[in-house]
Write a structure and sequence with these properties.
The protein is mostly beta strands. The chain contains 1 helix and 11 strands. It has a single domain, classed as Sortase (Sortase, Chain: A, Beta Barrel).
Length: 211
């Protein structure tokens, strides 16, 4: 844990604080101001239901394969996913290209019984223009998000809620492997500040597993 800043609180609290700073900074597109942001969609839907805390069971936890692709049929084309953590500055190392997504590998993997599967991507870039996650602004409630893992399994989530947060106010529970089993898709939203090279907000789509 030496790479994580701070001492005192346990690893989970350090992870949460690091994650909060991470996506608030990392899910930002570095582009020129002539790329307008999509119109902000209204918040809607119901967040995935809270689950009871899992019982403590002795023995090895089940192994899960990392995600390699995300597809929302009719809305988001299959998009590659790379596992990421934080860089030396404590920032989530989202792939530089908006054509790729980053999976927060310190959170939950697809198929886990608990925790958030967090996938984040840049909205666009000066070099490549709009990326696949621009489509998140138009994904309707009830759409099915399909996450394919390295072992070939496909995990399906139903989109149930959309929320917009100031870039420094993302919910801390997005970065934890505990709690409700759900999917969270994060990208930029709001006005673009050409001086800060940053959008003002982050858009989050939430999904619950389809059993």
């Amino acid at each position: 844990m030496g790479a994580w800043p701070g001492t005192g609180p346990g690893p989970d609290r350090v992870l949460v604080r690091t994650g909060l700073a991470a996506v608030a900074t990392a899910v930002v597109a570095y582009l020129f101001p002539f790329f307008p942001a999509p119109a902000r969609p209204p918040d809607t839907g119901v967040l995935p239901r809270a689950a009871a805390a899992p019982p403590v069971v002795a023995g090895r936890a089940p192994a899960h394969s990392p995600p390699v692709s995300l597809h929302v049929p009719g809305h988001l084309r299959p998009t590659p996913v790379d596992p990421v953590t934080a860089d030396a500055a404590g920032v989530m190392a989202v792939p530089e290209s908006p054509a790729k997504l980053g999976w927060w590998a310190l959170g939950a993997p697809p198929g886990a019984a608990h925790g958030t599967v967090l996938l984040a991507g840049h909205l666009d870039s000066a070099a490549e223009g709009a990326g696949p996650f621009e489509a998140l602004h138009d994904v309707p409630m009830g759409a099915r998000a399909q996450v394919t893992t390295a072992d070939g399994a496909r995990h399906t989530y139903r989109i149930t809620a959309r929320r917009t947060h100031a870039k420094k106010a993302l919910p801390r529970d997005l970065f934890t492997p505990r709690g409700t089993a759900r999917l969270a898709l994060v990208t930029c939203a709001g006005d673009f500040d050409p001086d800060a090279h940053a959008y003002a907000e982050n858009l989050v789509l939430y999904g619950e597993p389809v059993r």
